[in-house]
Design brief:
Pfam families: SnoaL_2. This protein has 125 residues and is of the alpha+beta class. Helix content is 26%, strand content 46%. It has a single domain, classed as Nuclear Transport Factor 2, Chain: A (Roll). A hairpin with a 2-residue loop joins strand 5 (89-101) and strand 6. The longest helix has 16 residues, at 2-17. The protein is globular, with a radius of gyration of 15 Å. The termini are far apart.
């Protein structure tokens, strides 16, 4: 089951990377919950749809370092770049814990931190 869930998540994330939010949502249960730990919780597919429409104006760029699947859970660790409120590219590191039921995404707990990329060429030697 865990390999199947991993494949579902990979397909769902590929849809997001292509700007296909509805493709992503097709992998989600109607009553899914997406929790940004320390911030907010989106309840239901429609709330996720609205958030994605406002946030993913341009498709984000994912770099997955690890994808670990066990039972009904898949954990993804990596980095994401997306446009911030000012339209500038912003980098984040994330750890997402996805829960599946019946072949659908039913829950996401997202731990996301904005990261600063340091320009090492400007530091004094």
């Amino acid at each position: 089951m865990s390999d199947k869930n991993k494949a579902i998540l990979e397909a769902a994330n590929a849809a997001i990377a292509q700007g296909n939010n509805e493709g992503f949502l097709s992998f989600c249960a109607d009553d899914m919950e997406w929790t940004f730990v320390g911030d907010k919780t989106l309840k239901g597919k429609e709330a996720v749809r609205q958030w994605m429409a406002m946030t993913y104006i341009e498709p984000p760029k994912f770099r997955v370092a690890n994808l670990i699947a066990e039972g009904d859970f898949v954990t993804a660790l990596g980095d994401i770049t997306m446009k911030d409120e000012d339209g500038k590219a912003a980098d984040y590191s994330y750890c997402d814990i996805w829960r599946f039921h019946g072949g659908k995404i039913v829950e996401l707990r997202a731990f996301v931190l904005k990261t600063e990329v340091k320009d090492e060429t400007s530091s004094a030697a």
